[in-house]
Records
---
Amino acid sequence: MTTAGYYAAVDWGTSSFRLWVIGEDGAVLAERRSAEGMTTAAKTGFHKVLDGHLAAVSAPPHLPIIICGMAGARQGWREAGYIETPAPLAEIAGRAIAIPDVDRDIRILPGLAQRDQRYPDVMRGEETQLLGAVALLGSGRHLVCMPGTHSKWVRLAADKVEGFSTFMTGELFEAVSRHTILSHAVAGAETFPADSSAFAEAVSHARHNPALATNLLFSVRAGQLLHGTGAADARAKLSGALIGLEIAGALSGFGPRESVCLVGSGALGRLYRTALEGQGLNVRVVDADEAVRAGLSAAAQSIWPL
Amino acid sequence: MTTAGYYAAVDWGTSSFRLWVIGEDGAVLAERRSAEGMTTAAKTGFHKVLDGHLAAVSAPPHLPIIICGMAGARQGWREAGYIETPAPLAEIAGRAIAIPDVDRDIRILPGLAQRDQRYPDVMRGEETQLLGAVALLGSGRHLVCMPGTHSKWVRLAADKVEGFSTFMTGELFEAVSRHTILSHAVAGAETFPADSSAFAEAVSHARHNPALATNLLFSVRAGQLLHGTGAADARAKLSGALIGLEIAGALSGFGPRESVCLVGSGALGRLYRTALEGQGLNVRVVDADEAVRAGLSAAAQSIWPL
């Protein structure tokens, strides 16, 4: 495996680690993926985890490393701080922090913070996806949806993050499906079809009746008891209720929109696309993996210009 | 301990067991409380749990037993079915089922069901509280709030349940505070003051912006990171967000009201009273323990008239 390279880019989340070795021409020379996210690495050691992956791709000793995500959290490798909104994305690279006392140049990018006294918000990792997304989307005004454990909705204007809101959709889905009475209703189905009518109906109901969201959740259990609702439909309804509530919240917070830019990938990206289009929105999709790589590349090129 | 008696009344929930031996004059002759709810009793045996408590109060061999709650669920002792809405509360006693092949007269009261195809709902135990509450409230039209793991809001008219809605407020509070990122924010505080301004503000925000509920939840975490929000305030905000969302849903589902009857007790009852009064509602409180005992008594007197 050839591993001469310009730099290595790392997306280090709460529960996942991804590394790409990038050549001077921008090509991906090597890739690593593992479950050694912040939670694991905080126990086993961030440096050790990173070195293991670099050794596995025979990275040269002085290859510089650019990192985004939870490695920069207070519980991470080293706290990388926050840029406050309104936040020009161009500032991200300049606010990277360096890991001291290591034998190579390792930088961690900062997150973004909205220091509202009552309704504060933070992101860490998504700012780098946004930096990459604007390179793909072009400047201008965009409402961006970034689904996940903590979904982010972002108002972008002229490459600046004007404001953003986090919705706990993905984490609530996990907590509700595993740790409440609904666990019985969804047991036995790990997925559901993307064209599920139960999903579409729940999205629509929650989007138009957000106050009734937790009532809609309980109807999943009641449906199992009274109508024998199957596990796949139950899971679809739970997912649709939470995603519909998120869409209602984002559109109430940022005002009604005609189009939205979806930074997603895989099954979750397809699900959000279905949900958003079902609510009459024009959806422009940016692949989340491409976006984070583009953002890390933009930062690396700014820090280590060729 | 004197245990001659008219009957024993049992409120058998998911996670709790309560028994009262009632005399012919309505006096409570003995009382037992334990954590042997349905979940435990389904493993150890319902008959055995009940017999243990009856022996502990030296109940006479032929004392009849009236039971409400999850003992009548499909996963309970014996399924007691549902009365469908609109449901006259007077029918509850007549629809009790008897436990077969036991040496005393043991009856379990049915639950209520709303067999809407898309948004079905069920209750089990609360119907008996309602039966008792109307004896205390008088007939007429009432909007009743019954807080708990699965809070119930009920529209009563002329001793009939016209409709009801369940909100998963209590269970969501447990799941979110234990199994999400907010567990860090609330760790170290088991309670918060009832006059907490963080609670009141969160109730109000969620009641008026229900679509932003899961965004409000995440702000609890962000507040800890950015402003050092303490655990008690974080817990208050989480609780307020979920209760405010419930109030928003109930008032959107049943229409705006000026007054509400709160069937509650203890700290949770006080919290809901604060929340409801903070939203400008007149609150009439019925003690939940008294209500369930009054409901079980009404059913017992109907089944075993003196």
---
Amino acid sequence: MNEFELIKNYFQKLSKKTSCALNLNDDVFFDKKKKLVVSVDTYIEGNHFLNFNKPDLVIKKIIRSSISDIICKGVKPKYYFISGSGNKKTFTKSNLLKISKSLNEEQNRYNILLSGGDTVFSNKLSFTITSIGFANDIIYRNKAKINDDIYVSGNLGDSYLGLLVLKKKVKLNKLLSKYFSNKYFMPNIKIELADELKNFASSSIDISDGLLADLDKLINSQKLSYKLNLKNIPISNNLKKILKNKKLSKINFISNGDDYQVLLTAPQSKRGIIKRISSKLGIKITKIGIIQNNSLKSSIIDLNNAVITLKNKGYSHKF
Amino acid sequence: MNEFELIKNYFQKLSKKTSCALNLNDDVFFDKKKKLVVSVDTYIEGNHFLNFNKPDLVIKKIIRSSISDIICKGVKPKYYFISGSGNKKTFTKSNLLKISKSLNEEQNRYNILLSGGDTVFSNKLSFTITSIGFANDIIYRNKAKINDDIYVSGNLGDSYLGLLVLKKKVKLNKLLSKYFSNKYFMPNIKIELADELKNFASSSIDISDGLLADLDKLINSQKLSYKLNLKNIPISNNLKKILKNKKLSKINFISNGDDYQVLLTAPQSKRGIIKRISSKLGIKITKIGIIQNNSLKSSIIDLNNAVITLKNKGYSHKF
């Protein structure tokens, strides 16, 4: 049973869709009347982060992952709550200082405020982050239309290569190791996009589980499919070099998640405004495919113009 | 280092007290401008609940514990978010059905709505509950005045005896075992009090860690102390009988926490209205002591009119 089935089978019915509140079928909770947006996520050592050797970086990663959920919906986060479970080894004075310093840096960078939480004793290290923002409206899932363009912000894949470096599955020089592991720990969340997305996006989600897994989620209640063009999926120059030098395949690097870029759909009429906003903010927003009727199967056109299918679409929470 | 020191030393400064938002020195977060009240708590197997043999009851306990934080502030909860970490053994289909059924019963009883959350894989079972309510104002900590009366709702100690029964440290007949373990799992949260508290309480908190520990928290930034009268501290007739039969001492049962009753202070001028509201709602609200200047030490007058001091004031989260 995956997370989606678990929610659908056991919890969906507990969340009646009222006139003002979303049910569980989106990344965030939104109460339109109260203008309240809430996201809750749990991060566990060995699962969502490898270990706690670098508490300062782990904390940055989980805060950014949490607020990314809200930002990709076109909303700026305001408050966050952190509930940490750990023991004497994980919550040493030195680590607490690092955690506190990192939180302070993230607060200044994203203009958010620690507003509460909990600390409990456990030999298993985990954090639950609740992020809250306020907005008159949000960008939903499942609002894409046939022939909408599919866009992604920034670059994909750097974070996954960073993870492979941290796991010692790929060996790079010091400079590149640092570059990619930093991309893994500190995704460059595009908070400046929050206020602009509503001007063009018909639907949006952030990429946490992987491009394809999150694209599936974005249209999961719709009778739609997608066609992506591998050539157009943006990757960094550093990643390009590594793929070339190590003869690795691009397709294996662009859908493994932890990118925290915004994945969105927009009508073709919005191409102009998207170019202008991308240029104004200095944020890359790349057209990577198109939404189509699901009489056509979802597909990816590879670098040789052949249609490819993937076995593993990304990270799925299994029970 | 206890939880209080941990917050003070490392996290207090991250939570600037703005004109509209509380800092970390209260049980709930309150944004007066947005009228938003938030409480976040984590519950871990072996710590906050013994085990998961009765998932239906554990879920009820943690939901009630979470909304109790908001209700004791004079606010009705509206939404809750549940983030569960577990594995295939804890999240079996049978357990998920029990969890879902329990949540549904709690939703109907307290008029709250599941609004989101997260499910992650972990061999350590834990839940984080975020509860949200809306209010123009809340009842704060640290607003008690000298000579204010101290009150508590309901009875204390039943839950602790229930825990001892579940731990097989006290043996009772089947009927009484059931009575006390139910008090442990399903504290009778006084949601009807939420709308009335603001009419008389000068400060309030819910009793989760224990009467004395929570009373200390209620006045922790004030130069105040308290005098309690053991004789007046309310316990159930069932507990009275057990204490008598087993020759157990009352003092050992009234401050071990998990009571989830409302502990509050009120000016002496409010005695009339408190009696009337207590009678109207059919909820016991008992005067158990008085707030005094801290030139006098906090004390408890025992059943023989002698002053007693306690070593262990209740549960404290240590790291």
